[in-house]
Input
Amino acid sequence: MKTRILTAAALIATASTAFAASHSMTPMVDASDQSVENGVVSADKIVADANGWLVVHRTDAEMKPGPVVGHAPLRKGETMDVAAILTEDVAAGDMLMLMVHSEAGGTETGIFEYTLGAKEDGPIKIDDKLVMTVITAQ
Output
């Protein structure tokens, strides 16, 4: 009887570990080309491993992050339909980079402090790659 209980406990522990590993929260951004006529750009789904920011950068064919044209707060975990209000005019055909930034390094929690190239509230990287996607404004 004791062996069965230990075996069952071992199976439950193994299954729990496997479930947690298969449902880990790898940071990512999922978004599609969209109209920005209403002054907002949205990501369909974002996964963040800590509280942070969805940051909208201008970009071009070189795919380098340019000036920030919008941002929105993110909470840790999976969030659907995250909308960032654009702070500059964006025209149809403009390329936008939607990127996950951290809340780390700044002086105030909950205040977006990043400027291009700064470390405060800077971009998240996984295996030295930015967590982002690029869309085209319609």
Observations:
- Confidence is low (pLDDT under 50) at residues 6-22.
- Residues 59 and 66 are 5 Å apart (CA to CA).
- The longest helix spans residues 2-22.
